[in-house]
């Protein structure tokens, strides 16, 4: 069962399961997802992960053996203004999902966590052992979600792992795109489509080109690794509590803008705006442990990320 399976990331996870010959079922309240993202023939349950009885019925009626929990409120900046909503959607919902799983005897879960659990660490390369210091209710809620899995596993039979990642971009197929109003790629593409000039928030950071450096990974690579983790749990393989799905080197915002201009053929010079408060110069994670245990690897480069995302944006009109 894929919670949030009608969303941008969840829908890619669903297709990755299909590609592996595993039948998924989707539960999603469509608060940010799209029913059209769910493939034909995949059972779709419209409902809230807060609804324990609906979760139990879905697990039971579809003979679910494991869960990939993608559903959640994912906007870190907005979470500062809506902390209670964030905790309800990300903590209470996870608690109720685990309750329903326990009551129905489902004991395997892959949790879609976030590198926001680290906050803004002052290290060149984030590892799983980097201290956790989330700086938003969103990051805190994801860390609490990991704690919930840990504590339930200590008290009962639960096989689990959490996948932490930063920025997810690109499209596995043109029909699936990132529709978030807060993410960089949609903001840049919307500006180009509307004849506006994309902008960079700050060019005076202590980085090679002065712009922020971040981890960007392709959504199809991310989805495939969720399925790999689920398969390993199904096989009874022991996994670490959490893995970083990191690039190991990262790219700068200026590099992304150059790639966008190159790939789309739309020539532009980005506007330079002031820094945003709290933006660190660099956050990049190591994916070494995930590579060793889950087979994590980045099969798409930056141009692939831009090209697939741009194709999906153009298809949407």
Automatic annotation (TrEMBL):
Name this polypeptide is given: UDP-glucose 4-epimerase
Source superkingdom: Bacteria
GO MF: UDP-glucose 4-epimerase activity
Keyword Kinase: no
Residues annotated as signal peptide: none
InterPro entries, per database record: Epimerase_deHydtase (IPR001509), NAD(P)-bd_dom_sf (IPR036291), UDP_G4E (IPR005886)
Reactions mediated catalytically: UDP-alpha-D-glucose = UDP-alpha-D-galactose
Family, similarity comment: Belongs to the NAD(P)-dependent epimerase/dehydratase family.
Protein keywords: Carbohydrate metabolism, Isomerase, NAD
EC number: 5.1.3.2
Domain NAD-dependent epimerase/dehydratase residues, every copy: 1-246
Annotated metabolic or biological route of this protein: Carbohydrate metabolism; galactose metabolism
Cofactor: NAD(+)
GO biological process: galactose catabolic process via UDP-galactose, Leloir pathway
């Amino acid at each position: 069962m894929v919670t949030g399976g009608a969303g941008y990331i969840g829908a890619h996870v669903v297709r990755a399961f299909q590609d592996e010959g595993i039948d998924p079922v989707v539960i999603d309240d469509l608060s940010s997802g799209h029913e059209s993202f769910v493939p034909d023939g995949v059972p779709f349950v419209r409902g809230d992960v807060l609804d324990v009885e609906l979760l139990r019925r879905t697990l039971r009626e579809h003979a679910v053996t494991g869960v990939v929990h993608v559903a959640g409120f994912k906007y870190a900046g907005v979470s500062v203004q809506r902390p209670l909503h964030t905790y309800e959607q990300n903590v209470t919902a996870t608690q109720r999902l685990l309750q329903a799983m326990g009551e129905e005897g489902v004991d395997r879960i892959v949790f879609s966590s976030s590198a926001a659990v680290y906050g803004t660490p002052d290290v060149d390369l984030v590892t799983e052992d980097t201290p956790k210091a989330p700086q938003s209710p969103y990051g805190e809620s994801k860390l609490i979600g990991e704690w919930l899995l840990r504590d339930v596993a200590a008290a009962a039979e639960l096989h689990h792992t959490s996948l932490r990642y930063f920025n997810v971009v690109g499209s596995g197929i043109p029909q699936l795109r990132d529709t978030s109003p807060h993410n960089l790629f949609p903001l840049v593409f919307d500006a180009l489509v509307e004849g506006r000039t994309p902008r960079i928030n700050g060019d005076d950071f202590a980085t090679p080109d002065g712009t922020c450096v971040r981890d960007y990974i392709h959504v199809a690579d991310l989805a495939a690794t969720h399925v790999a983790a689920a398969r390993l749990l199904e096989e009874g393989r022991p996994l670490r509590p959490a893995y970083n799905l990191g690039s190991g080197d990262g790219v700068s915002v200026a590099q992304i803008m150059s790639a966008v201009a190159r790939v789309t053929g739309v020539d532009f010079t980005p506007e330079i705006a002031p820094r945003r408060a709290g933006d660190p110069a660099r956050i990049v994670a190591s994916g070494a442990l995930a590579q060793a245990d889950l087979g994590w690897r980045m099969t798409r480069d930056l141009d692939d990320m831009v090209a697939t995302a741009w194709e999906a944006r153009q298809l949407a009109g």
